[in-house]
Amino acid sequence: MTTLTVDAAEFGYGDTGPVLSGITVTARPGEVLAVTGTSGAGKTTLLNAMAGLLPARAGTVAVDGTPLTSRDHAVSLSVVLIPQDNGLAAILTAAENISVAVIATGGSPADARRRTAGALESLGLSGQANQLIDELSGGQQQRTALARGLALRGDVVLADEVTSELDAANRQRVLDLLRAEAGRGAAVVFATHDPEAAAACDRELHLADGVATWARP
Ligand SMILES: Nc1ncnc2c1ncn2[C@@H]1O[C@H](COP(=O)(O)OP(=O)(O)OP(=O)(O)O)[C@@H](O)[C@H]1O
Asked: Does Nucleotide-binding show up as a keyword for this record (predicted)?
């Protein structure tokens, strides 16, 4: 069971002013935490910082008390990021994208085969396993990225706008899968601008004007 804590943190880019400041939030095992806000509010900024991609200018981002130093460090602590832009390799198939990620994080080839098939099936993509990413629709690509994230079985799962291109049935399927991730003990953080999706989460942190407030603590 792993807890990710952001404490009195400030985040920004280059020498420009802060995007977010005074951010304090804990992602707890067994919970789905929604991070909401309008476009540009800083949802991706916060999730990238939680993933170890963006250092805090002030304050800390820590996993079980250990401050994150880099993305590699976060990966070693089982922090999985499902990025907004999918991050899939276009020259690989859907199944290969997932298998490579499982093997890169220490899984055996047999693990990779089993987890890839399971993750694709859970997202309704068994029929797309051997298609190249470029041959998939935007929503299928988004579900493939999610399948890859789920196959990694992270202790912390950061899902950035993973329902933005999905129809209602697939959105519900994804919300159920994020809930299942929490059910196996992961700390799940889900960035979304969709109020209905946020309502399905346990707590909601709202970002606006560079600060965070609890819409539902
Ligand atoms: N790499 C970057 N360099 C400079 N500024 C950036 C960078 N990434 C994001 N920003 C700025 O940080 C602010 C927050 O952006 P961010 O992508 O975190 O918002 P968001 O809430 O995820 O938006 P959306 O819902 O549109 O994805 C914006 O003003 C954006 O222009």
From this structure: yes
